Fold this protein.
Amino acid sequence: MVSLEQLPEIRTELFIGGETCTADDTLRVIDPADGVSVVGYAAAASAKQATSAVAAADRAFPAWAARTPQERAALLTAALAPLADDRSATAEVLTRENGKIRMESFIDSVVFEHRFNLAVGLTDELQRVTHLPAPPYRTEISYLPLGVVTIIVPFNWPLAILAASLPQALLAGNTVVVKPPPTAPLATVRTVQLVAQSLPPGVLNVVTGTDAEIGAALIQDDRVKKVCFTGSPTGGKRIMSMAAESLTRVALELGGNDPAIVLADADLGAEAMRRLFAGAFDSTGQICMATKRLYVHRSRYDEVVEGLAGLLSATRLGHGLDEGVTMGPLHSRRQLEYVRELAAQARGSGAEVREFGQAVDGADISRGNFLRPSLVLDPSDDARVVVEEQFGPTLPILPFDDEDDAVARANHTWSGLCSSVWTADLDRAAALASRLRTGYTFVNAHGAAHLDERAPFGGFNHSGMGREMGIEGVREFMDTKAVGFPV
């Protein structure tokens, strides 16, 4: 078992204009596995320091934008070199501050680098010019970078999520200020600084601090041309409202209430069940694109319930650094209480709630934010656990008899991030996918592990606006320019 008292405290500073900067105050980071152990401290920037980060990015913009995409791509690729040697240490820090298991933290760091490489692969498309022949004019349409971009990162998969927009913004010729999550900033600061120190000063900056102190400086400064935010719909509305004061553009990747539809002919063998399980319960359910509602044809309902129950029974809870642990704690106490509340409301309205899993040998899960995973069986469609995004390890399973009814129920929601269709008939899957009002539909899988990261990603409805990754993700950070020539 990991001895939390023997682990070193981690300290991170600000990185502005190519230099490390201290702050007068700090953010204290607590391990969610026990709620008391201090993981470390991150510098808490003042509003003045946040403004200086924006100024540094603004100064660096003209020279960075003037480079060719190929020059920028070469510099970004070279800047990734230090990440591999630091990956294990970064994963340990991320697990301690976030709560998720070490393997997931390691993958988070790997995906960060992978998404940079995918973005660099799009380099030659950036200079593409569309020509409209005369008459009446000979016109050229091209794209130019925006300027300074602020990227605000969530706690759950901070490195992977950051890399869905950071390399695209930099490759397009923008300069960036990154704001890591205040409750889990340490691994993100380490990683961003490793990349930033190999780039020209001011191209990439990282500022940690409280939303109340530095939020306005990073969003409403006239030099900030775009704000990218990943988080809850409530947070997205707040960002959008603040950005409106300066007419700053926003890209919002918000919450999801993802439906999965299991048809009567679905393959429910062992491997399929593992994919179904992982799509809902990876990262203790704290993934925006996790399955949040599972609609199952009545003829397969018991089979799905028993299959998931068997996998959940093998869940072992404990600190994410300990051997044998398959599920860590929730990140916050508030989220723990919220998920409990949703399950209790469903139980009180007549649904059966089955809880599973146990502590790994020697682990004390009475401390911290541990919650045994659960299935909520046949709740009403208006139960809160169905209507709201639980963002935790509980899954409502709802039977259906008619495909049209299942699609209508799946679409009857505020969200529109991801969905999935499970069937042996791929033509049937395509037909249903075209009717689901989500930005991405998986077939016979669900979740980030099965995402084609070459494709654009984003949501419908209250799940956000704008797209990440792919060439569409790069164009999010560019303005369209037309030049007309007389003939």
